Amino acid sequence: MTKKIAFVSSRSPDAEEARQLLSKKYSSVEPAEADIIVALGGDGYMLEAIHRNMSRDVPIYGMNRGTVGFLLNSYDEDNLLERLDNAKPEKLNPLHMRVTTDSGVQQEAYGFNEISLLRQTRQAANIQVSIDGRVRIETLMCDGCLVATPAGSTAYNLSAHGPILPIGSGVLALTPISAFRPRRWQGAVLRQEAKIHLTVLDHDKRPVSAVADAHEVRNVAEVDISVALEKEMTLLFDEGHNLEERILNEQFTP
Question: Can you list the alpha helix ranges (DSSP code H) found in 26-146?
Fold first, then answer.
């Protein structure tokens, strides 16, 4: 049986042109009717497509019409059906954050790459770090900190000098962003079952925002972060170029 394909794209001219071309060349349906979604754009749009389809059990095959394209396959308008038939699945679980703001409002969001806490003003943030109910750092003075999944470990986490985590390793990276105190703290690698609680100290004077992928909550008082094992998305990659191989390659790239 032929799989029904939906083509979606970012608003960039290259991505939109590719969507129109592929939609004409191959039979296209609406995303709600699709067996496979082909996303055209960059990594940011790929994450957007993942979030939009979290409630549906449909795999996403990305083709790069952006810049880096770490989460995407190379773009080629030919042999798409064969590529989809031979693509290898990679299952990803997102991070879940529950945020309480300084006014007591609670919000929840998911992040497949990372969840970041970032200072909102010129003043450094003061953050208390607790893991599984135990305070590990009384006061982390910093520009912020982040929790990254293996899939997101080569993104913002790597730029903040966090570790690259292999896919399937079952661990998370807790990485400081420009830590001033403790000056030499480089972060930690945690098991994926860890329950992370971050308390923003002096939040009235030193406000902090929390960001899960593209979803931002401002004026945060505390954040609980854990892996949402009940949520799962399937990404499709060309054989020999899967996410595990890409992350491995990052560790040997000069």
Answer: 43-52, 80-86
Architecture in CATH for domain 95-227: Sandwich (2.60)
Enumerate the CATH 3.40.50.10330 domain ranges in the chain, comma separated: 5-92+232-250
Give the neighbor-by-neighbor strand order of the sheet with 5-9: 5-9, 36-41, 60-64, 233-237, 88-92
Which residue is listed with tokens 């998911």?
110
DSSP at 201: E
> What average pLDDT does range 13-33 have in this prediction?
93
Architecture label for domain 5-92+232-250 = 3-Layer(aba) Sandwich (3.40)
Evaluate if residue 71 carries a pLDDT over 90: no
Pairing of strands 106-111, 215-217: unpaired
Q: Are 198 and 128 in contact (CB under 8 A)?
A: yes
CB-based contact 222:199 (threshold 8 Å): yes
Q: Tell me: the pLDDT tens digits for 90-107?
A: 999 999 999 999 999 999
Q: What is the pTM of this model?
A: 0.90
pLDDT above 70 for 141: yes
Q: For residues 76 and 216, what is the distance between their CA atoms, to the nearest angstrom?
A: 34
For the sheet with 95-101, list strands across it: 106-111, 95-101, 220-227, 196-201, 125-131, 134-142
For residue 67, the model assigns a pLDDT of 83
Is the Cβ–Cβ distance between 166 and 150 less than 8 Å? yes
Q: Which residues are catalytic?
A: 43
In order of 96, 151, 166, 173, 228, the CA distances from 169 in angstroms are 18, 11, 5, 11, 16
Residue 119 CA to residue 218 CA, distance in Å, equals: 10
Strand partners, 215: 212
